[in-house]
Amino acid sequence: MSILGLSFTLLFVMITMLVSVWQKLGLERDIAIGTIRSAIQLLLVGYVLQFIFNTSNPWFIALILLLMIGVASYHAGKRGKGLRGIVWKIAIAIASTELLMMGLLLGFRIIEATPQYIIPISGMTIGNAMVVSGLLLNQMRREVGSSRGEIETLLSLGATARQAIQDAMKRSVKSSMIPTIDGMKTVGLVQLPGMMTGMIIAGADPIEAVRYQILIVFAFASSAAVTSIILSLLSYREWFTKDLRLLSIEPERKG
Question: What CA–CA distance (Å, rounded) separates 19 from 8?
Fold first, then answer.
């Protein structure tokens, strides 16, 4: 794609801003900032990846993966505001998922041990784990709020924190995985995923592109389950005080 052709894509941004003005949504500033930030971030990442691909230094690969995990944990941690050490717990869950996924992919030689495969697939895995973490914490906040009476009753009867919050944890894990499972059911029918589409546009054989997309779909399902389960086990105790009273955490405010 030429620079001129790429510049024409700003028409999509202009249309979005015009709709915002027309409907008085007040999103013009956010759209403009988002447009500038995304363009700068993607260009910077492009140059960084080009450098890493050319050097193939494992330390650079590890550094960029750690950066991805750190940023993902920070953003997902906003959903757990008020919980002690939640960012670190998210980082452990995401890092564990990444190690498991990449260990299997490299161990069974499903992908080659090169930056061109490791970084993009890791980025998608970490991004999916970030979304799942946010969904889990959001749902836990709702579950704890709606089940407060039930949980406190169980505690008063001598249940441990794990026993009292177990049902809320199960419902939260299930809820956090629903978007991933729904995506598996409709992939290829409702939508053509970005990775497959990108490969086809780049000239790859459609069947080869589909194989890689299947890999990503299956990896996403596994990473969603692993991340949500690990995070729920690491964080459930943080919904209680030291003397086993439920925290009073306000519902997340939109906007």
Answer: 18
Coil, strand, or helix at residue 187?
strand
Please give the Cα distance from 47 to 144 (Å, whole number): 45
Q: What separation in angstroms does the CA of 110 have from each of 8, 25, 49, 103, 200?
A: 38, 47, 22, 10, 20
Runs of H (alpha helix) within the chain: 3-7, 10-22, 28-55, 58-77, 86-107, 115-146, 148-156, 161-186, 194-201, 206-235
Which amino acid type is present at position 143?
Answer: E
Q: How far apart are CA 77 and CA 83, in angstroms?
A: 9
Give the model's pLDDT for residue 253: 53
173-224 pLDDT, tens digit each: 999 999 999 988 888 777 677 778 888 888 889 899 899 889 989 988 999 9
Terminal-residue alpha carbon distance, the chain? 36
- The residues, ordered by sequence, that sit 6+ positions from 223 with a Cβ below 8 Å of its Cβ are 97, 101, 125, 128, 129, 132
Which residues have a Cβ under 8 Å from the Cβ of 120 and sit 6 or more positions away? 195
- What is the signed CA dihedral for 89, 91, 97, 103, rounded to 10 degrees? -130
**Average pLDDT, integer, range 85-94:** 97
Task: Provide the token pair at 125.
Answer: 């895995």
Burial tier of 235 (Cβ tally within 10 Å: 0-12, 13-18, 19+): buried
Cα–Cα dist 86/76, whole Å: 9
pTM score, whole prediction: 0.85
What span, in angstroms and rounded, lies between the C-alpha atoms of 156 and 94?
A: 34
